Amino acid sequence: MASNDQQPDALYKLLIIGDSGVGKSCFLLQFTEGDFKEDHNVTIGVEYGAKTLKVEEKNIKLQIWDTAGQESFRAITRSFYRNAHGVVLMYDLTRLESYENLYDWLREIKQNSDPDVVIYLVGNMLDLAEDEREVQTDQAQAFAEENKLDGFTEASAKTAEHVAEVFQKIGEVLYKKSVEKQAREQKAISPPPPIIVRPTTQPEKKKSCC
Fold it and tell me: Distance (Å, rounded) from C-alpha 121 to C-alpha 13?
């Protein structure tokens, strides 16, 4: 983990999207501050956090926006899709309804985001999975594969299990894609190699004798 004081080599904007109450704010707080609040207030509009990671010896800064899941704030949420490099699509694995609503959230992401946006699926509340699980792991894995998402992880904002791993993986995917994009753009603007035309030598005509 890199220091937040260091100048980043790359900066990416992320959104955390999903139903109200799936733990988006707690997930952000756990990642950025290593803290968990059981009675965290419901997000009104958006909340913000940032952290710098180390990816391939580069300092990668993630600016993370936690969005409100309530319908009344959806217009505000949609405006934050613009220029987002990645989206954490979150559900509560103890609430089947939050998983079923992923289809609506995914549709909204694709309608409002760049076609190249990185989408990473997270099943939160892993600490409650043993007794209260309503969404099976293979169920969510199949959803991620069918919709060609960039990854899937079950995690717990409360215990911090796999929280840092989620953002590390997202950072790696984002950096890899940006490097590949730069390479494509550089190739597109590079002038083609010069064509060298070599002069052909005419065979010497024999002089006729008279």
Answer: 16
